[in-house]
Design a protein that fits this description.
mainly alpha, about 250 residues, 7 helices, about 70% helix, single chain
Length: about 250
């Protein structure tokens, strides 16, 4: 059974009386043979626009003693830099700060946009707008980007010898080592997607059942878990890249 069918089966008794609340309803744009997921496209570009505008505003008049938005963005940069430094290592982390930072900020703003913004007021032909990370397509794309990144990190360090790790320390581990590379993007994508979708479903159901007070603590908890999910994704991405680079360094030292 499809995952969304499972969520619908669980939630349908609670939300049957609310026709506007549903999961798995989407609208698409058809451009030639290309099908574009309209909700994810709109909300993803909204998040990208927010990040670009915030970056431009924070850097348009740089001060030696930062304040306001510049101060906040510098704090965010230091936070992301610490994640990359801790996971990849002091020697190699600098080129990977933009990648890890982009992952963290995009996921963080996406998750919080789903919790804080009243997407329902924007009418779309089918379904409703939600956080981009509420959709499995977005989280799979982010996980595959992470996979490409750590393959690139390993190959740039060792060349094609990077793939010899599949038969190390013994060729018997070849199937397990290959399987590990498939499970990494799966676990990354399904963890983020499941947590964000479940959080939005719980809040939506509670808002319908108990409209005023009880949803507020749940929404606060949702903001916290959304931030944690962004941190987990960025940390694991850095850890995988660091693992690929470290493997190459160990071989070079030998």
């Amino acid at each position: 059974m499809h995952m969304l069918d499972v969520f619908n089966a669980i939630s349908s008794p609670l939300i049957a009386a609310e026709p506007d609340l549903g999961v798995g309803e989407h609208f698409y744009w058809q451009i030639g043979n290309l099908t574009i997921h309209g909700q994810v496209f709109l909300t993803s570009w909204f998040v990208i626009a927010v990040l670009v505008v915030a970056s431009l505003l924070a850097t348009r008049n740089l001060q030696r003693v930062p304040s306001g938005l510049q101060n906040f963005m510098e704090y965010a940069l230091e936070f992301v830099r610490d994640i990359a430094k801790a996971q990849i290592g002091e020697k190699e982390y600098r080129p990977w700060v933009p990648f890890v930072g982009t992952l963290f900020l995009f996921i963080f703003v996406s998750n919080w946009s789903g919790a804080l913004l009243p997407w329902k007021i924007v009418e779309v032909p089918e379904g409703e707008l939600a956080a981009p990370t509420n959709d499995i397509n977005t989280t799979v794309a982010l996980a595959l980007l992470t996979s490409l990144a750590y393959f690139y990190a390993g190959i740039s360090k060792r060349g094609l010898k990077y793939f010899s790790r599949y038969i190390e320390p013994t060729p018997i581990l070849l199937p397990i080592n290959i399987l590990e590379d498939f499970t990494k993007p799966l676990s990354l994508s399904f963890r983020l997607f499941g947590n964000i979708l479940a959080d939005e479903l719980v809040v939506a159901v509670l808002v319908f059942l108990v409209p005023l007070f009880i949803p507020l603590p749940v929404m606060a908890l949702g903001l916290f878990t959304s931030a944690i999910q962004a941190l987990i994704f960025a940390t694991l991405a850095g850890a995988y890249i660091g693992e690929a680079i470290e493997h190459g360094e160990e071989e070079a030292e030998e």
